[in-house]
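Long-time lurker, first post. I've been practising inverse folding by hand and with some scripts of my own, and I keep getting stuck on stretches where the structure tokens seem ambiguous. Below is the full token string for one chain I'm working on. Before anyone asks, I'm not after the true native sequence, just a reasonable design that respects the backbone. If someone could post their per-position residues I'd love to compare against what I wrote down in my notebook.
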């Protein structure tokens, strides 16, 4: 895809601006693919099955081509706004970025979200017998695989979004611009949605997995505390209007 094509796509009215910023990245399940520039670009870019294969050199070539084109467009737009991106990486900025990285990594919420990802990994490593519960759940018409898939999808996503919210909170404090909706609230909102869904999925597991009820209850309790802490740190997150999902599809259970 060349730059002109990229520009043309970006101007297409079909697409909802920024819809991909606060979604859960689960494109296979997304009801808004036709309104998402990100999705259209990947479909166009990786339409050739060979180019979807991450083992394949062509995939990486396409990916680096996409980064290059995006950077060129970014530089162009920045120039139009009177910003010279080349001046942004002086020593002071780099030090500032490093300090922010450290603050984000050390933040209690980031550490708790990371701990959750790790606990999930440990839990699944030890529970090889989950298969038998899957069979018994299926007898009741419950798809346990679905619950596992939801937990696995959000396992690292929650941490990534919580950390982005924390970072946003730090940056926004410096900017003090109350006029626009805050990225930190949007990131916290999608993290909270992912936590809600994960708790729901763990509740299904708990019902069928009687072998380690305490282990599952501990994870649910931890996740619930994380949810409470995120809500406390970002009190406006739940009210944040995510482009596309909360404006147009109010009430839909999509991303
Ligand atoms: S908005 Fe939907 S289609 Fe676009 S990136 Fe997010 S999940 Fe994928």
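-- Answer (accepted) --
I ran through it position by position. Result:
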């Amino acid at each position: 895809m060349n730059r002109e094509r990229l520009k043309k796509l970006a101007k297409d009215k079909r697409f909802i601006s920024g819809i991909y910023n606060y979604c859960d990245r689960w494109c296979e399940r997304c009801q808004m693919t036709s309104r998402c520039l990100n999705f259209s670009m990947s479909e166009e870019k990786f339409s050739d099955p060979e180019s979807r294969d991450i083992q394949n050199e062509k995939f990486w070539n396409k990916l680096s081509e996409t980064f290059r084109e995006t950077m060129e467009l970014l530089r162009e737009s920045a120039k139009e706004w009177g910003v010279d991106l080349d001046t942004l990486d002086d020593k002071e900025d780099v030090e500032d970025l490093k300090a922010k990285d450290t603050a984000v990594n050390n933040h209690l919420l980031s550490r708790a979200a990371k701990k959750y990802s790790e606990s999930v990994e440990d839990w699944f490593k030890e529970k090889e017998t989950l298969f038998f519960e899957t069979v018994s759940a299926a007898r009741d018409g419950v798809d346990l695989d679905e619950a596992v898939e939801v937990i696995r999808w959000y396992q690292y996503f929650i941490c990534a979004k919580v950390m982005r919210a924390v970072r946003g909170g730090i940056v926004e404090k410096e900017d003090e611009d109350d006029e626009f909706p805050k990225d930190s609230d949007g990131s916290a909102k999608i993290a909270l949605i992912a936590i809600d869904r994960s708790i729901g999925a763990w509740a299904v597991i708990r019902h069928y997995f009687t072998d380690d009820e305490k282990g599952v209850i501990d994870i649910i309790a931890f996740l619930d505390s994380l949810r409470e802490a995120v809500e406390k740190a970002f009190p406006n997150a739940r009210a944040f209007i995510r482009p596309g999902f909360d404006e147009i599809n109010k009430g839909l259970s999509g991303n």
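A couple of notes from the structure itself: The chain has a mean pLDDT of 85. The first helix runs from residue 3 to 11. Happy to go over any region you disagree with.
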